[in-house]
Amino acid sequence: MTGGSLGIRAGSYGSLLNIKNVIAGGGRLLHSKSFGSVRKNPIIMLSGSREKERSLPSIWYRYLGRRNFSMLLLVAFAVLFFVLGSFVVNKESNSPNVDQRIGTMSMAHYINATRNEASRILGRRNRQKGGDGNRFQASVSKGANHPCANFTFPPPPPPHLRRIGPRPCPVCYLPVDQAIASMPSSPSESPVLHNLTYVHDENPIKTEPHGGSDFGGYPSLKQRNDSFDIKESMVVHCGFVKGSKPGHQTGFDFDESDLAGLQQFHEIIVASAIFGNYDLIQQPRNISEEAKRNVPFYMFIDEETEAYMKNRSMLDSSKRVGLWRIIVIHNVPYSDARRNGKVPKLLLHRIFPNIRYSIWIDGKLQLVVDPYQILERFLWRQNANFAISRHYRRFDVFVEAEANKAAGKYDNSSIDAQVDFYRTEGLTPYSEAKLPIISDVPEGCVLIKEHIPITNLFTCLWFNEVDRFTSRDQLSFGMVRDKIMAKVNWHINMFLDCERRNFVIQAYHRDLLEHMPPPVAVIRHPPALPNIITRERNQGKKIPRHGKDRRSGSRHHHKASAGNRESNFF
């Protein structure tokens, strides 16, 4: 069930493809055309060589001949281009302190759009503060000596190379060993809240007309409101209200053989899920040996997905698929597979009570950067304990709600009811009055989290909104975040979505992949060399032509052949 290359997006949703014509170095991009490698038309090259032959002494003709002189000229040009190209690459790509993974060149068009949007929102406020620095420069909380302190985005590409839509952009990562060394030795301080426990209720009863579930415990509106009053010790609803411990007779149950392993201590885990047999497992790439030894990768699947994988001989008794450890879920609490996926996404701290950091990626994503590098870049370097990318286009909840309705993401009346409820609680359209908050809408397919009480509370309350209202977690994110931030000094690192697209690649869902035609193999033949031998043999010989039609047809054939040779070189 591992996704192949066919499943990797290369269209408008962004992909991290291998670059053929971009070279990283010194925090900037160097286009390969800058040091010249464009192949010339062989006809032009031959004519140029003839001009040079006429200006040379006759001894070169007698000693080398036309054929050898032309070949020598071609070899000289090739050696010259190779030497110059190697010199530029070796000079510009020397960056021993940082690892800059580069997206496609067209990402700069997206950066320009983001810069314009942010400038419109932030411009006046920044001018009032007297600052005019690059707002898109990597903010370094560890001091100016950080290897990435001077990293900035490259300039935009020429207009003819720009492509619309979201794209990955460059991110400055530390090498894995330096990233590991920068891991904090002790947990971050949790503001105000120090002791968080969870409601246990074997017989939850629905007392209000709003949504909810047995799994979530049906918290009342009063209990909901009280949960936003941050105190030193709190007891809140956070799923798994039944049973003695999460995963044991709670709904969303694990096999007994898995329960003990989930209680073990880990510094870092990576987690994902596939429910309803909706996606193909994507194997992580570029994972260091340290991460393979010390960072477990957990994939949660339901029984439907398990049956599919066993029928395809993708899953055996080892419960491993590549790097992923498969955890089968029984007695799922919801009929909606996407809502079931929100349980491990938002409640990892309940499933894994003894971990420090987690990286969540949706099942459709492929991780292509080492976990240590991701945590260093988006948490440790920023002195943050929760990170999520903001939406690449929308930053207003009301606009996001309309987009969800237009795309048929959920029942329209349920979306309207949720947004209307938030409006009564004071939700307003986004404006610069919310600065330094720059977006109310996340691109919630990746969560990077340190497990401390305040972040655990945040994801608990976020899950309660998903349980009560729609499963579209983008709609409830901003409301929960703002209510907590109004009570305590806490923030979320909402980084650029193009940076997220740098370390994960989005694949197509399984049903789309299975209906795609197989890829067509493209056979590329090497370009034909100019027919110098034939021309030399026929030099001085007059080839008879008979008739006007034969003469015009020959000229047409000669032009067509030249055109074909020219096209082969490009």
TrEMBL record:
The chain crosses the membrane at residues 69-89. Residues 540-560 have a biased composition (Basic residues). The keyword Membrane applies. Keywords: Membrane, Transmembrane, Transmembrane helix. Residues 535-570 are annotated as: Disordered. Residues 196-509 form the TOD1/MUCI70 glycosyltransferase-like domain. This is TOD1/MUCI70 glycosyltransferase-like domain-containing protein.
